[in-house]
Design brief:
This is tRNA(Phe) wybutosine-synthesizing methylase Tyw3. One of its GO terms (molecular function) is methyltransferase activity. The chain is an all-alpha fold and 90 residues long. It has helices at residues 3-19, 23-27, 32-89. It has one domain (3-89). 0% of the residues are buried.
Length: 90
């Protein structure tokens, strides 16, 4: 082999070594078990949040119904007040 070809091979090997992940680099990567644990925790949090959203929605619906009843009562009382005022003026 020529010296130039050998030098190219040496340079390529050096480039590969520089860009190759080391054992230390790999230790900082997440393991499958860790990812599974994170996924489980996130799933539990999502379930808990979903349940809370359902409860909040039900509570809001109850409040909305209550407000509608109160509005209807206020309307009836207003009409009675107007009728009574009219009766007093007559």
């Amino acid at each position: 082999m020529s010296d130039q070809l050998l030098q190219q091979l040496v340079d390529e090997i050096k480039d590969i070594k520089v860009s190759m992940a080391t054992k230390h680099d790999l230790e900082s990567f997440a393991t499958k078990d860790y990812i599974d644990q994170v996924e489980t925790r996130l799933s539990e949090k999502i379930d808990r949040n979903s349940n809370q959203i359902v409860r909040n929605t039900e509570h809001l619906n109850d409040l909305s119904e209550s407000r509608k009843r109160h509005d209807k009562i206020l309307e009836i009382l207003s009409l009675r007040s107007i009728e009574q005022e009219g009766a007093l003026k007559s």
